Amino acid sequence: HTVPLSPFTFHDKLAKLIKNKKKIALKSIFIDQLELPSRIYNCLKMSNIYTLLDLLNNSQEDLMKIEHFRSEDVKRILG
């Protein structure tokens, strides 16, 4: 009997990135460099999310609370 492992969560990925000392790099990648659709980009900016680190510091639930943000947008970002 095998138990399927759950996929890594968003916060597990963030913790691993920070452990690997990527924090400085994440701070220097701005969301306008991510080639996001303009509506998603504008929603993030209105929520004071400017860098990849800012984005990763938000949970999926936090992102869903952003005004005019849809579940498809979250899926697109989290890939």
Model description:
- It is built from 6 helices and no strands.
- The chain is mainly alpha-helical and 79 residues long.
- It is globular and about 35 Å long.
- The model has no long low-confidence stretch (mean pLDDT 83).
- Assigned CATH class of the domain at 29-78: Mainly Alpha
Report mean pLDDT, rounded to a whole number.
83
Most strands sheet:
none
Low-confidence stretches: none
**Structural classification:** mainly alpha
- Could you give the count of β-strands? 0
The CATH superfamily of the domain at 29-78 appears as: 5' to 3' exonuclease, C-terminal subdomain
CATH architecture of the domain at 29-78: Orthogonal Bundle
Q: Helix tally?
A: 6
What sort of overall outline do the alpha carbons produce when their principal axes are compared? globular
Give the DSSP E fraction (strand runs of 2 or more residues). under 5%
Separation of termini?
A: 31 Å
Instruction: Specify Rg, calculated over alpha carbons.
Output: 14 Å
Order of helices and strands: HHHHHH
Helicity level, as a percent range?
40-55%
CATH domain topology of the domain at 29-78: DNA polymerase, domain 1
What's the structural blueprint in terms of helices and strands?
Elements: H1 10-19, H2 23-27, H3 38-46, H4 52-56, H5 60-64, H6 71-78
Protein name: RNA polymerase alpha subunit
GO biological process, one term: DNA-templated transcription
Keywords: Chloroplast, Plastid
Note the main attributes of this structure.
DNA polymerase, domain 1, mainly alpha, globular, 79 residues
